Amino acid sequence: MEFELLGWPAEGPTLRLDYEQFSYAGKFVMSSTGKAVVREDGDVVAAAAFDPDRTDDSVLRIRYVTVRRDRRGEGIGSRLLRTVRERASERGFGRVVIAVNNPFAYEAASKAGFGYTGERTGLAERVLAWPAPNRDERYREGLTTFREDDLESGVAEFVESRETAPPVVEPFST
Question: What is the pTM of this model?
Answer without folding.
Answer: 0.94
